[in-house]
Amino acid sequence: MKFLDLAKVHIRSGAGGGGCISFRREKFIEYGGPDGGDGGNGGSVWAEAVDGLNTLIDFRYQQHFFAKNGQPGMGQQRTGKTGDDIVLRVPVGTEILDEDQETVIADLTEIGQRVLLAKGGNGGWGNLHFKSATNQAPRRSNPGQPGVERTLWLRLKLIADVGLLGLPNAGKSTFLAATSNARPKIADYPFTTLHPNLGVVGIDEVEFVVADIPGLIGGAHEGRGLGDLFLGHVERCAVLLHLVDGTSQSIAEDYQTIIHELEAYGGHLADKPRVTVLNKIDALDDEERAAARAELEEACGCEVLEMSGVARQGVTEVLRRLRLEIDDDRLRTRISEDEPEPWQP
């Protein structure tokens, strides 16, 4: 299945049916009076987050979604049929944006969450509604309201617990393949990963989801490379796993490049908890490993873990640290949700 995280759709709700002008005509009833029914309401357009989807590829082949119009009213006080609704089924984590691609209309983060995108037009009144003491035989009715037509953007931000960051060939896909059943493409050249990959990782009988995105390079926030297109997928993560290639000749510079791109991207991405790991230690001897770790610790100012995804060295320690960060984030979220709102007179 191809991955697509941005799609443009055109939607239109149904128009309401017109009201009916009709009079009762029955044997032995000379003045039957008006009996025109109301028009049916037009169908609405909804969006719903469903389980089992992780791409917007379906919206590449169908961009237009038009709900049914309401049927007009009929005689004998019969109301027209209401138009059928249309539901856009999207993956969990989908943001719905207005045509300007900036105004967020809805953010669907839970399974079953629904949002109304375009309400159907109301049906018009039949002439029965206009009957009064001074107007016993009204010959007027209302037309139905027109539907709402608009253009929207769907933007998918994958929901994962851990987001993998690093320069191209830092070993992110290798780590994901070594710790989960995900099988991302792995090769010895930059930008092997062209789209995000998700993997479920287990440690100490606890599972969490890891998202691997294409590697970042300098200037990614300005559109260079591929990573800037997918940074949104790690915005929802509880913790970021920053992998630094231990075989690089400029470890501190590689680390600062990623941090600078996070700060330039914005969205509080640089403020998220991070676990910094020196990767590919199997290719270093003890002296080189110690020097590389010291250089990275000086650059980041925090503890650095060591790991080799290929040799499976230090992987368990990294996963346990990630689990602790995820638990802390969930605890902070739960406490913030339980805090009572400040009292106001």
TrEMBL record:
<keyword id="KW-0479">Metal-binding</keyword>
<feature type="binding site">
    <location>
        <begin position="279"/>
        <end position="282"/>
    </location>
    <ligand>
        <name>GTP</name>
    </ligand>
</feature>
<comment type="function">
    <text>An essential GTPase which binds GTP, GDP and possibly (p)ppGpp with moderate affinity, with high nucleotide exchange rates and a fairly low GTP hydrolysis rate. Plays a role in control of the cell cycle, stress response, ribosome biogenesis and in those bacteria that undergo differentiation, in morphogenesis control.</text>
</comment>
<dbReference type="Pfam" id="PF01018">
    <property type="entry name" value="GTP1_OBG"/>
</dbReference>
<dbReference type="InterPro" id="IPR027417">
    <property type="entry name" value="P-loop_NTPase"/>
</dbReference>
<protein>
    <recommendedName>
        <fullName>GTPase Obg</fullName>
        <ecNumber>3.6.5.-</ecNumber>
    </recommendedName>
</protein>
<dbReference type="InterPro" id="IPR036726">
    <property type="entry name" value="GTP1_OBG_dom_sf"/>
</dbReference>
<feature type="binding site">
    <location>
        <begin position="166"/>
        <end position="173"/>
    </location>
    <ligand>
        <name>GTP</name>
    </ligand>
</feature>
<dbReference type="InterPro" id="IPR045086">
    <property type="entry name" value="OBG_GTPase"/>
</dbReference>
<keyword id="KW-0547">Nucleotide-binding</keyword>
<dbReference type="GO" id="GO:0005737">
    <property type="term" value="C:cytoplasm"/>
</dbReference>
<dbReference type="InterPro" id="IPR031167">
    <property type="entry name" value="G_OBG"/>
</dbReference>
<feature type="binding site">
    <location>
        <begin position="212"/>
        <end position="215"/>
    </location>
    <ligand>
        <name>GTP</name>
    </ligand>
</feature>
<dbReference type="GO" id="GO:0043022">
    <property type="term" value="F:ribosome binding"/>
</dbReference>
<feature type="binding site">
    <location>
        <position position="193"/>
    </location>
    <ligand>
        <name>Mg(2+)</name>
    </ligand>
</feature>
<feature type="binding site">
    <location>
        <begin position="191"/>
        <end position="195"/>
    </location>
    <ligand>
        <name>GTP</name>
    </ligand>
</feature>
<keyword id="KW-0342">GTP-binding</keyword>
<dbReference type="InterPro" id="IPR006073">
    <property type="entry name" value="GTP-bd"/>
</dbReference>
<dbReference type="GO" id="GO:0042254">
    <property type="term" value="P:ribosome biogenesis"/>
</dbReference>
<keyword id="KW-0378">Hydrolase</keyword>
<dbReference type="InterPro" id="IPR014100">
    <property type="entry name" value="GTP-bd_Obg/CgtA"/>
</dbReference>
<dbReference type="GO" id="GO:0005525">
    <property type="term" value="F:GTP binding"/>
</dbReference>
<dbReference type="InterPro" id="IPR006169">
    <property type="entry name" value="GTP1_OBG_dom"/>
</dbReference>
<dbReference type="Pfam" id="PF01926">
    <property type="entry name" value="MMR_HSR1"/>
</dbReference>
<comment type="similarity">
    <text>Belongs to the TRAFAC class OBG-HflX-like GTPase superfamily. OBG GTPase family.</text>
</comment>
<feature type="domain" description="Obg">
    <location>
        <begin position="1"/>
        <end position="159"/>
    </location>
</feature>
<dbReference type="GO" id="GO:0000287">
    <property type="term" value="F:magnesium ion binding"/>
</dbReference>
<keyword id="KW-0460">Magnesium</keyword>
<feature type="binding site">
    <location>
        <begin position="308"/>
        <end position="310"/>
    </location>
    <ligand>
        <name>GTP</name>
    </ligand>
</feature>
<dbReference type="GO" id="GO:0003924">
    <property type="term" value="F:GTPase activity"/>
</dbReference>
<feature type="domain" description="OBG-type G">
    <location>
        <begin position="160"/>
        <end position="327"/>
    </location>
</feature>
<keyword id="KW-0963">Cytoplasm</keyword>
<feature type="binding site">
    <location>
        <position position="173"/>
    </location>
    <ligand>
        <name>Mg(2+)</name>
    </ligand>
</feature>
<comment type="subunit">
    <text>Monomer.</text>
</comment>
